[in-house]
Amino acid sequence: MTLPPRWVRRFVLWPLPLILVWFYVASVPVLLIVAFVVSYRLPGSLRAVRSLGLATVYVFVEVAIILASFGLWIATGFGLRLRSRWSVQAHYRVLNWALRTLVGGGRRLFSLDIAVRGFIRDADGRHPVDPPGPIEHPLVVMSRHAGPADSILLMYELMVQFERRPRIVLKESLQWDPAFDILLNRLPTHFVRHGADRDEVLGLLRDLSSDMQPGDAFVIFPEGGNFTPRRRERAIEYFERQGRTAEAERARGLQHVLPPRTNGALAALDGCPSASPVFVAHTGLDEIAGPRDLWRAIPDHKVLDMVFVAVTRDQFPIDEADQVELMWAAWELIDRWIDDGRTAPPDPDA
Prior knowledge:
By secondary structure, the chain is an alpha/beta fold. It is 51% helix and 16% strand. The protein contains 12 helices and 8 strands. Strands 2-1-8-7-3-6-4-5 form an 8-stranded mixed beta sheet, sandwiched between helices. Helix 4 (85-110) packs across helix 5, helix 7 (198-210) packs parallel to helix 10 (262-271) and helix 8 (229-241) runs antiparallel to helix 9. The longest helix has 29 residues, at 47-75.
């Protein structure tokens, strides 16, 4: 569905949550009774009640973001100083609070634990990293994409545990959500338009990373979407149509991840030569591909295992072909780590 122009979203979509929240609050007592009745008839522990709880947290966060953003718009002279340093920092604090609230609510309601390990790969080998970590450079974070809300959980870890200010590359369709639309458009973010010119997008990504400072983290998902078997097959078919048989064969060897689209991440690294590349592997929510899977998983205890491997820039190849090879090798390593049963973190020396 085509995203409407910004002025339409501003006058139609943005006020909508503020109107609907009154109907939601008024109906919560009835919804709660229905949820208890439905949960009583279903296997598991209060599935419907837990789902209603998460919906309530989401609605609360959505409205709070809109109201906070409106207050900051007034505080910045009705938007005249919206891009000032103070304004950007204030909007990051709003995002930090929203992530803490959403993830905190989700972990309690759905019995989710997050296990995070960090490693840095430099000339002396591999060293553990305790948050917030010793890396003072800006980062280009390249993450696997799979499972529900994995982008939110990654952002939560970067902001809360590693104390980073994320710069995000997201799909344009996420702007249908008023909170995402308002807040993230006031932060260093690029929404990729479907069918956009490739060179134009790469240029925008270089610009987005070009002025990063220590404490910033450029976040990108090189797979372009959550892993599904169908998307894996389409990627293989694409390489075969292009006559890229070697890449098709390597993609066929990946069972749990999609082949990485290297151009965007390499453009970000090219835009910020001081940035350290970081590869993120995660697993634990892989089998939850849609609402039906999520419903069945409630309230089983789940552990999201995340591993951050940072490569110091002096260990990152200079030649573009070698950079592409490193990204493919990293994704093959993540695939093997998932296949081995998640018994150990990926070995950066591989």
